[in-house]
Automatic annotation (TrEMBL):
It comes from Glycomyces luteolus. It is found in: Cytoplasm. One of its GO terms (molecular function) is metal ion binding. Belongs to the Ro 60 kDa family. It comes from the Bacteria. Residues 1-33 are annotated as: Disordered. This is TROVE domain-containing protein. It holds the Pfam family TROVE. Residues 25-352 form the TROVE domain. One of its GO terms (cellular component) is ribonucleoprotein complex.
Length: 521
């Protein structure tokens, strides 16, 4: 009888999120807890961290302190890895605050040790024109006015790259504690050319009350001023999309400028061609309430559904669920469904039978942000049902301290399935009996996928996956980033991923094909 050459034989596989083989801690609910190495703990925390937001088990200050300590340790231990990670966190995972804080803390730690690279890290994560000011505001609140040279130079590099006339019109507002002029005054950014030199001078003059005339080269700012002056006499001038574009007029400014002086539908129809993707996504309800014309709605829907636009926008998949719930009209539903599908392009097709366990315990009800519009269990449900649609055969189970099997309907859209999950009571609440759910529902499946915060109750086993044979893959999708995990990870058939994007799905595809999975950056 063959001892090794069996149908179930798998190559020895590795994935990047690594824990110890033995549980040396406890989850918050008392199950054996597996500690991870610094990079793994940092990664799982960062990809689920909105900074300054309290979670079910961890106060905001404690969570932020843990994040800062992990970033500083990783930066000194492995500057190159930390630089790649933080750049990806901002540009791939599209998490602004976590990337910004991480970059500043990494640069601080490197500067204190005399290690180069902080300047480049800071520059790499500042990708929107308001972020140099955001960086200075964070630094001042955390460490005071004295800014080390690598941080200052990184912010200066970003300001020179990001500051344009249109950026100044959109982001340089009196509501900001650090105006563009303040940033330039503090970091001494060097302009790229004469036109940007005129802009920098204008920004400094405007900040310190010295503006009399706008330099001739700043044609967009001059056009903006002319349009504002004209709009006081004839508000209908803002209904010309070409003039709006020429003047760099944002949709927020146009609404503020003319208010109810022109029909709201006409105003939105003029603004829509120049609005950004996210601006259109967040204003679907406003479009409906204003009763914009069908031709304008068709423009918006076509853009929302375009896979290229979805990829370029880097919207988190949960944004589309939020927009679907907020928009009263069904005319957006199909476009949002297509957009959500496009944002989940990395979901692999999996052969055989898959058990998908979605944690809907009380701790998964904590929100990602203060407005509480989306919960961690919403993300778990979206990712779980998206995966189920691509599996040859999948059993989908909601679990807490009891379980409830979700019956899939052929041809049902993902957004409708998510809403049926909600309306039919699949968000259970209460405790996290992960081990019990695995033991109850595992029936010789080829793999198990658990979407959870990993804070399991103790069920008597060494880890929550004990009921699954060692030759079957178990993937844990972590949606909270707490310190201890519910099972070992990183080798063999036990692997953990995390985050709010579809990036981790690519790792499942690699492991299923018998290849090691590496960091997504």
């Amino acid at each position: 009888m063959a001892k090794f050459n069996k149908a179930t034989a798998r190559p020895a596989l590795e994935s990047p999120v690594r824990s110890g083989a033995d549980a040396k801690g406890r989850t918050y609910e008392g199950a054996p807890g597996y500690s991870r190495d610094t990079r793994s703990e940092l990664f799982l925390l960062a990809v689920t961290n909105m900074v300054g937001e309290q979670t079910f088990y961890e106060a905001a200050d404690a969570r932020d302190d843990r994040y800062r300590a992990l970033v500083r340790t990783a930066a000194v231990d492995d500057p190159a890895w930390t630089a790649r990670f933080l750049a990806w966190l901002r540009n791939g995972a599209n998490l602004r605050s976590a990337a910004l804080v991480g970059a500043l803390e990494a640069a601080k730690a490197l500067a204190e040790k005399g290690i180069p690279g902080g300047r480049q890290i800071v520059d790499s994560v500042l990708q929107r024109p308001d972020e140099p000011g955001e960086a200075l505001a964070y630094w001042a609140s955390a460490y005071g006015r004295a800014v080390p040279k690598p941080v200052k130079r990184g912010i200066a590099d970003a300001a020179a790259r990001l500051y344009t006339e249109r950026a100044a019109l959109k982001y340089d507002t009196a509501a900001k504690g650090y105006r563009f002029g303040d940033v330039l005054n503090l970091v001494h950014a060097a302009p790229r050319d004469e036109r940007q030199g005129d802009l920098f001078g204008h920004l400094l003059d405007r900040r310190y009350g010295r503006v009399e005339t706008v330099p001739e080269r700043l044609t967009t700012i001059r056009a903006n001023q002319a349009l504002r002056a004209r709009a006081t006499e004839d508000p209908r001038v803002v209904l010309d999309p070409d003039r709006l574009r020429e003047a760099g007029m944002s949709w927020e400014d146009a609404l503020s400028l003319v208010g109810s002086k022109v029909p709201k539908a006409r105003l939105w129809e003029a603004l829509i061609p120049s609005m950004g993707y996210m601006a259109q996504l967040r204003n679907l309800r406003n479009f409906d309430e204003a009763e914009v014309a069908d031709w304008a709605a068709e423009l918006v829907a076509a853009r929302l559904a375009d896979p290229g636009e979805v990829a370029k926008s880097r919207q988190l998949p949960m944004r589309f669920l939020s927009a679907y719930r907020a928009a009263p009209s069904l005319r957006w539903s199909y476009a949002l469904e297509q957009a959500l599908d496009a944002s989940l392009a990395n979901v692999p097709g999996l052969p055989g039978r898959t058990l998908i366990l979605v944690d809907t315990s009380g701790s998964m009800r904590s929100g990602f942000s203060r407005d509480g519009s989306l919960m961690r269990w919403d993300a778990a449900t979206v990712f779980g049902l998206a995966l189920a649609r691509r599996c040859a055969a999948a059993d989908v189970v909601s679990f807490s301290d009891r379980t409830k099997t979700f019956r899939q309907r052929p041809g049902e859209s993902l957004l409708r399935a998510v809403e049926r999950w909600k309306s039919d009571g699949y968000f259970i609440g209460s405790g996290t009996s992960t081990e019990s759910a695995v033991r109850k529902h595992y029936q010789d499946h080829d793999r198990v996928v658990i979407l959870t915060d990993e804070q399991a109750h103790f069920g008597g086993g060494r880890d929550v996956t004990a009921a699954v044979p060692g030759d079957r893959m178990v993937y844990t999708w972590n949606l909270a980033g707490y310190r201890h995990g519910h099972a070992p990870s990183g080798a063999g058939t036990r692997h953990t991923f995390g985050g709010l994007t579809d990036a981790a799905f690519a790792m499942i595809g690699l492991l299923e094909s018998g290849r090691n999975a590496d960091w997504p950056f």
